[in-house]
Amino acid sequence: MPPFRRVSEEEVFRAWLFTVDRFHLVDPNDEPFERFVVRHPGAVTVVPLHDDGRVSLVRQYRAAVDAMVLEIPAGTCDVVGESLEAAARRELAEEAGLEATTMEALIGTWNTPGISDQHTTIFLARGLTPCRSEPVGIEERFMTVETVHLDDVDTLVADGTLKDETTVLGLYLARAHLARVDSRHDQAPAS
User: What is the pTM of this model?
Assistant: First the structure.
């Protein structure tokens, strides 16, 4: 089957953080069609895992859903030339007031590929120590930091406490990562 083809695109709206583009496309039967796509610079999220299995989350207002949302620290890749890891470290300090000795990328994911090209990289941060927090923006000024235990994630998802998809994915991936690391450690020969 011939592939879908993008013939052209045009910007129809520009906001501070994103644009909306109209794509002119052709389907595999050579029929033209259009789609509107939100262009986003990308984002990072961070699972700040403490040595005791707790994770620091932030609760902040999200206008799109008109709710205070409990989520892992996150932010937009809006600093030119900044690496994904540097962006993750910046957001961890800004939102949770934490620094990490290790920062490991767990996955890169498309948030809503039906309407947006936003790509988010989820990091696992370990070796945490407090640092100065400098909230940026109105929502962050009213944000609170809370902790949950990784063992409680299933319950928090089931009861609707956690609804943010990158938070849920990040917490499950962190838990799976730790299980793999512990399994390898348990299988290592004694010296």
Answer: 0.92
